[in-house]
Structure formats: structure tokens, C-alpha cells
Design brief:
Layout (H helix, E strand, L loop, with lengths): L11 E5 L12 E8 L2 E6 L9 H5 L15 E3 L3 E11 L8 E2 L4 E4 L2 H8 L7 E11 L2 H7 L3 E5 L2 H6 L2 H12 L14
Parallel strand pairs: 4-8
Antiparallel strand pairs: 1-2, 1-9, 2-3, 3-8, 5-7, 5-8, 6-7
Length: about 190
């Protein structure tokens, strides 16, 4: 059970147990940036947007210079505020408005970071997300108790360097749970 005494999930991965393709979180890995008694916020890190690219976004933004955007991708961060942009990145980059999750990972949402990334002076590692995943007070705890999620330790290598199609499986491996022996029902004695 998660309590107000510090056993929160900030800096952890949630690994979805839902495999139903109709579910927005099917086979998702969510990095939890913030979790407290009031709720949680995170970003799906393994679902790249297919129909909308950073190039499509860049033409609508007030950039004054030509930018190198060919290798910049957008991810479906979650179902909340789908047009709002966030950058999940290594903590080597910090400016006003940056939220440091821990010693390795930070989150920014300003246009400055996008310009800095495109100009080659941004964080060493980054993942650009549109939208976010959010939970109200105690909602995430209830979903965990309903066996919708497993919790694993997060690491920057899995987040930034692992191919998207392998992130769910590798995050699942990090949980230490053998899914062939896993019973997805809950009960209370």
C-alpha cells in the first residue's frame, strides 16, 4: 500500500498488464514523474506517434532559424491534454521551468528546450511527448491493486536507448515477475 510517508512512485515505471489493443495503455510503459497524495502524472515512453511528426509541429512554431528536426520524434505521452508538449530528458539540462524528477531525469515544457534540442545544445537524451498520463488521488493505487499495472525500477538506458518495440518486454523483465506463472486476478483474505 502506498502511504503519505514517502512510498510514492515518482521515478518508477508502470508496466501495463492490459494487452487489449482498444485500451490506450495496452502494452504501455509509463514513466511516473510525480506522485503524491493528490495523484500522479507520467508519460508513456514506448508509443511513437505515427501520423504526426516533429517536422509537422515545427512548421507551426515560432522558430526563427532552420532546425535539424529529422531525427526528432513525438511520443503519445498519454490521453490527457494531447496537444500539450513535454520533454522528458536527462538531468544534464536545466533551465527555468524544468522539473527535476531525480538525479538522472527531468521534465521541461518550454519552447526553449525544443529549440535547444534542434540546435544541438539541449539535453544529451530526450523524449518529446504530446499529452500526459494522469491519475486522481488514490486512482493509481486502485489500478495497481486491480492488477492493471506492475511497478519496476526506471532507468535512463531503457527510456532513451532501447528500441520502442522492446521497452515493454524489458520493463516487464525489470519487475522480476514471470508472466507465465502470473495469475491476473485479485483477492483479499
Amino acid at each position: 500500500m502506498i502511504t503519505d510517508k514517502g512510498a510514492f512512485l515518482s521515478g518508477k515505471f508502470l508496466v501495463s498488464l492490459d494487452k487489449d489493443d482498444d485500451d490506450v495503455f495496452a502494452k504501455s510503459v509509463v514513466y511516473i514523474c510525480s506522485h503524491d497524495k493528490d495523484g500522479a502524472m507520467g508519460f508513456v515512453i514506448n508509443k511513437k506517434l505515427k501520423d504526426f511528426s516533429f517536422s509537422d509541429l515545427a512548421v507551426k512554431m515560432p522558430f526563427d532559424m532552420p532546425l535539424n528536426v529529422e531525427n526528432m520524434f513525438l511520443y503519445q505521452g498519454g490521453p490527457v491534454e494531447k496537444i500539450r508538449g513535454f520533454v522528458l530528458h536527462s538531468a544534464d539540462y536545466f533551465k527555468e521551468g524544468t522539473y527535476r524528477v531525480n538525479e538522472q531525469i527531468a521534465v521541461s515544457s518550454s519552447l526553449d528546450i525544443l529549440t535547444d534540442i534542434a540546435c544541438g545544445v539541449g539535453p544529451k537524451q530526450n523524449l518529446i511527448a504530446l499529452g500526459y498520463s494522469g491519475w486522481q488521488s488514490h486512482q493509481i493505487e486502485q489500478e495497481i491493486m486491480q492488477n492493471r499495472w506492475l511497478i519496476s525500477n526506471a532507468n535512463a538506458d531503457l527510456m532513451f536507448n532501447t528500441p520502442d518495440e522492446l521497452k515493454w518486454e524489458r520493463a516487464m523483465d525489470e519487475t522480476g515477475i514471470d508472466l507465465t506463472r502470473y495469475i491476473p486476478t485479485t483477492g483479499f483474505a
